[in-house]
Amino acid sequence: MADFHEFYPLRRHNTFGFDARARFAVHVRSEADLSAALADPRAEGLPLVVLGGGSNVVLTGDLDALVLLMEIPGYQVEATSEGGDAWLVTVGAGENWNVLVNRTIADGMPGLENLALIPGTAGAAPIQNIGAYGVELRERFAGVRAYDRQAGAFVWLDLQDCDFGYRDSLFKRAGAGRYIITAVTLRLPKGWQPVLSYGELARELDGQASPDAAAIRDAVVAIRSRKLPDPAQLGNAGSFFKNPLVSATQRNALLQAHPDLVSYAQPDGSYKLAAGWLIDRCGFKGVSDGPVGVYGKQALVLVHHGGGTGAMLLALANRIADTVQARYGVRIEPEPVVL
């Protein structure tokens, strides 16, 4: 029988540090733990919530739910990688993402360096299709092992099955609540080439002609450390808003009105606007609204100074989004999941 904890405090399980309790919580350290928790009669009728590092959630109150604290370990280089064009690395859903990035680089398997220092666990990475500095998870992805609650069985979902989009996936749309990821298999190319398309990253590397993966990782860590606060010191979930996508026509009109607009061309002809720039230009950088606010070094980051609630943070986020829409005609959307 699974070890259920009643009225379990979740403050340590969300990087904003909001106080909330779960009706029941279970530490899931194996697939057997997961199966036992789902079969337990105490879980009957309760909604299910899965938490990894809690770095992409906003808890707005107590959860009348069964919360699965995903802590499954594991790291294995698949034997089928030998002789192929990529290393296949399978990791448990509970593995720390940044630790994984460092380990693969140390083991001579580059490819994740642009995604260094992203908080959270490996199992959460596909849900959000995490990305940074020109690389998205889907470019380094083979598949996931997950429990399909509808089928009542463990299944394999490959790249196509997961239907990735910008900070989006099957797990946030049609598969929301259906699949519980227990392991992730990454595909790290043996014919590795550095991705230096972001000017900020290239500048940090100071014109190095052929930086290796460790050098790129160090540059990414340096940039993120300057821009983003440590959740252990100041509650946050990293970048709070997605960079909005707009048509070339809308981007060109905005550029005429705002010549310093920051935008990035996309392969399909659309443009990604820098949400941080939009928020900054609306005067929100460094603004405090009681116990919550906007980080003074990066307008894309919302912070919790302590003593606040998720509802307070969402009210600030909505005010920011409304202001950006009124000024620029663009709606920015939050990245974290609201519970």
Task: Offer a quick outline of the entry.
With 339 residues, the protein is an alpha+beta fold.
Structure description:
- The protein is of the alpha+beta class and 339 residues long.
- The chain has helices at residues 31-39, 97-106, 125-128, 159-162, 199-204, 213-227, 248-257, 275-281, 310-328, and strands at residues 5-9, 21-28, 48-51, 57-58, 63-70, 75-77, 86-92, 131-132, 135-136, 141-148, 153-158, 179-189, 235-239, 245-246, 263-265, 271-273, 288-289, 292-294, 301-304, 337-338.
- The protein has three domains: 5-70, Uridine Diphospho-n-acetylenolpyruvylglucosamine Reductase, domain 2, CATH 3.30.43.10; 75-189, Uridine Diphospho-n-acetylenolpyruvylglucosamine Reductase, domain 3 (2-Layer Sandwich); 235-338, Uridine Diphospho-n-acetylenolpyruvylglucosamine Reductase, domain 1 (Alpha-Beta Complex), CATH 3.90.78.10.
- The strands form six sheets. The chain has a five-stranded antiparallel β-sheet. It has a four-stranded mixed β-sheet with strand order 1-2-5-3.
- Strand 8 (131-132) and strand 9 (135-136) form a beta hairpin.
- It is globular and about 60 Å long.
- The model has no long low-confidence stretch (mean pLDDT 94).
